[in-house]
Amino acid sequence: MSGYIYFTDEQKERANSVDLVDFLQRQGEKLLPSGRDKRLARDHSITVRGNRWYDHSAQEGSYAIDLVKRLYNLSFPEAVSLLLGGEQGVEYRQHNKSSEPEQRKPFVLPPAHTDMRRVFAYLIKQRCISREVLSEFAREKLLFEDAEYHNAVFVGFDEKGMARHAHKKSTVTDSGFRINVEGSNPAYSFHYISKSPYPHNLFAFEAPIDLLSYISLHPQNWKNASYVALNGVSEQPILKLLGMYPQLDHVVLCLDHDAAGIEATERIYDILMEHGQFAAGQAQSKYKDWNEDLKAQHGFTPIPAEEHPQLLLRDELCEEISKFTWEHQSADCSVDVFRKTLQNCRGNPQQRKNALVKLAGLSVLAATKEYKRISHCRDLSTVESRLKYSFKTYQNHGRLENKLSDIGNSLMPLFLCSQIETQSEKQSCAESFEQLASECLKGAVLVELSIQKAAEKKQEQGGLCLS
């Protein structure tokens, strides 16, 4: 958006008061029920209610403008304009502040039923979970049946043995009801800590039933490991347990086999690396989640896994980039060539994709040449491999126009490399070319996604015309 746009205080207040459920659904976002909140399907850590949002992984939240800036990589004026209806003149529903509760209730466990027959029947017959596993969790008071609605209640305790978190799941057939008890502390979600004093694994899952399903699938010596359900995709429970129990020396991320789970796995892995937890890996279910794997073993038809569309495109585009680099190893990597290629990114979608693939290839070649100048071991194959496996889907959201602008801004400083002298400066220059290649790959993935969506939309419209 060019030029400065002035908004009155009243306009900014109206933008910040937009009902986020209404707004997000009309942007095509899928929202999932999460108690009184709605959870963003593409990022389970973000919940919205009214005009407010909260990111449970980052432990921060605010009002509508900040969320729109964050989700769509927009500037403040662009976000305000979009919330006010933009050029389309759309009017979004305003949130009624008087409908919000004044304060949060303190955490209290719901009263327990005298027995657990309905919970056991549901978890064994419908979810196929091992009776022995359920009995162990019940003995440890980590699982019980509530008295009023016969929900399964999964309890999380703190280091002093005090209940601090509880998650309720309906035992009614085909009911999707699940909710955290109000006042629950997300850092102490449902978990099982092995009594083994020796170093062992911590397995992390999205939901309690996934956790119990994994143990049912892998019963041998299961008590020699520890387990935690994140009740979504927040890293808080993992970091809390790592701080509390030094014997947890390796984290295994076992999140859902779908786009949201894949993004969360990448994000939490990076957070663990930032916290110095270098012993981390992942285990992926064959079907959508571990309970689907368990049900398939018992003859049920499972929900299939969902691969991340960006990862599928990453693989295809990396092959195109590799083909370019191997065919043009002596290519001119001068500033003029980069400039001309960047200009082609302003053409139609196919021209943009081709230009970004070429820019990525040129950046890979430039990085390889810089590494060769300092006798570094990173050759062309290594740089290409690093490009592919450094790609993170959770980092690739937002508008393509902004990404193209970032690519252009980062391009010019790279051609000062000829003026640097030290080995460390030359290595830094090579790594900057690698980063440029990474941004070009991300841009190419976004363009290809837009091409595919346009083709799907055209096909749908053609189908409607025929009908």
From TrEMBL:
Residues 121-195 form the DUF3991 domain. InterPro entries: DUF3991. It holds the Pfam family Toprim_2. This is Toprim domain-containing protein. It comes from Muricomes intestini. The lineage of its organism: Bacteria, Bacillati, Bacillota, Clostridia, Lachnospirales.
